[in-house]
Amino acid sequence: MFEEMEKINARPKPFEYYTAGDLWTDKHTSKMMLSYHLNTDVDISSRNEKFINRSVDWITAQFGVKSGTKIADFGCGPGLYTAKLARKQADVTGIDFSKRSIQYAKQAAQKDGLSIRYENKNYLEFETKERFNLVLMIMCDFCALSPSQRAKILNIFREILEPGGSILLDVYSLTAFEKRKETAIYEENLLDSFWSPNKYYGFLNTFKYEKEKVVLDKYTIIEAARTWVVYNWLQYFSTETLEAEFTECGFTIEKLYSDVAGSPYSPETEEFAVVAKRA
User: Fold this and answer.
1) Which whole number is the average pLDDT over 68-93?
2) Which residue in 35, 57, 79, 225 could disulfide with 105, CB within 3.0 to 4.6 Å?
3) What's the whole-number mean pLDDT along residues 28-47?
4) What is this structure's pTM?
5) Do 55 and 69 fall within a single domain?
6) Contacts of 188 (CB under 8 A, 6+ apart)
7) Phi-psi region of 193 (alpha: psi -120 to 50; beta: other; left: phi over 0)
8) How many domains, the chain?
9) Structural domain of residue 198, as residue ranges?
């Protein structure tokens, strides 16, 4: 028992393990994530509907979205942005790890008569001969990637963007990092049975890495038949550290905002958004 508790409470190196597939492809957790996506009143898997509507209107105006504008939405989920952008006459492609979310997005598009291309794959493996005017990565997905993965995704963006094309993405700020605290929590059916339809015992260990500005929420789930661990990493950025990564990959950050709806930038906000172009 002591050795098991040592494993549960062990602090790994930053981004030492990557378990995104366990969250997005598991039959039960993907169902739970989709239900959060579709709850239009909360900001859990997706922003609330009021914000998304405001965001899409701003994106449309900011980037001159019209018929023929080609947009790629990385981490599109069930198509909450892609569907609204398609209604603005954009030519939209959505990429997501979750088969369940992509299936929902395809069915919704078909029902509404929208022509949207969806791909169910890890966006770190996305390849296409198409070129886009705008690439989106919304809900701070960029922060869940390791430094090498972030470089890889930026290189993918650079490859698929038309000359003069733009990236819009959001990240967590150092203000948010300072508010995170290290914790250790144990509960029966942790997070209201999010992790399994069966009875389980859940441990949540939150670790902060001050030097790297990284936070790990480490979930150890103990069921009768198995024990498994999910590592939820989040990188937090200053404007300078984010700009350095973009510059290294051949991008120039043109504008900072407090969110992807175009709110004026403030260093006090817990998130911020960037518009970047190929250098």
Assistant:
1) 97
2) 79
3) 78
4) 0.95
5) yes
6) 199, 200, 201, 202
7) left
8) 2
9) 2-11+176-234
